[in-house]
Hints:
Blueprint: H1 4-25, E1 31-37, E2 47-50, E3 55-60, E4 63-68, E5 74-78, E6 84-90, E7 95-100, E8 105-110, E9 116-121, E10 126-132, E11 137-142, E12 147-152, E13 157-163, E14 168-173, E15 178-183, E16 188-193, E17 198-204, E18 211-217, E19 222-227, E20 232-237, E21 243-248, E22 252-258, E23 263-268, E24 272-280, E25 283-291, E26 300-302, E27 307-312, E28 315-316, E29 330-331, E30 337-342
Antiparallel strand pairs: 1-30, 2-3, 3-4, 4-5, 6-7, 7-8, 8-9, 10-11, 11-12, 12-13, 14-15, 15-16, 16-17, 18-19, 19-20, 20-21, 22-23, 23-24, 24-25, 26-27, 27-30, 28-29
Amino acid sequence: MLYPRKLKAFALVVISFTALNAKAQTKTGLHILKKHTIKSSGGWDYVTVDAANKKIYVSHSTQVNILSTATGDSIGVIPNTNGVHGIALVKDLNKGYTSNGRDNSCTVFDLKTNAALGKIAVGTNPDAIFYDEFSKKVYAFNGKSSDASVIDPATDKVVVTIPLVGKPETGVSDGKGKIFVNSETTNEVVVINANTYKVISRFKINEGDEPSGLAIDRVTNRLFIGCGGNATMVIMDATNGKNIAKFKIGDCDGVAFDPALKLAYSSNGDGNISVIKEVNADKFMFVENIPTEKSARTIGIDLATHHLFLPAAQMEATPSTADNAHPRPHMIAGTFHIIEIGK
């Protein structure tokens, strides 16, 4: 028989154990599995994962490196993509598109042979790029001309250029006729009608600065906005722009969302991935920070295996000058690689 004092102590033990067990269950179990070396030199930006064909496309200065997600081996290169930022895949037409920031163009390539099929002139300094399955158009977001070039992959022609006012970063689609793109310099999410190519809304990010990474849950219509300027993730209702929640993260540049696991990942250049769990459309919780490496600031997700891929390299400090008090660090030659995260 348990006396009242012992019963109280027993109850506290049960409550404590339950709380610890619940806390333990919130961890993802994700960690670094492998590191895949890419021997060529140069900087990088976005990565795109083709889960169905087990490929990862890595932007890398003047070329795109293609690796096998199964083995990590190099299986191809797309050269002459000067200042490449992103890669978009149009599988129905067997075409890929790169955004070449330094020569204001997009390279079109064959997804099977990797052979270049041509170049398309776009706006100034194209950065993020993606394919919208709803409108069947490729969107290239141009950082310096502050607009979006909309490409018809059936003809490889720019059908319209959309003024955006601010500097665009990552774009996503809700799959139902709306395009969302971060505006880094105005701290907004710009909404584009994919039928008319008109800007129809500008949603203010109330407590986020310099939004870069962006992902969407198409089921709940929630946007996950990674703001590197103040190391904050803001979660927004894509229907009306309501700011629903915010979380402290790190120096974010990329965001990915796993719709099966309901997890949003922010890749932070200061050396970790912040994980946010979507409990339901209006409830979110911080899960953990997964250690990665400093410089691992962009992210790609394999929705088949639930693995994450992040480009990174060892960096060395660059001396400051009178013109540049806080210069970017330089990559140490031969250290570029892809970090693979999984269970």
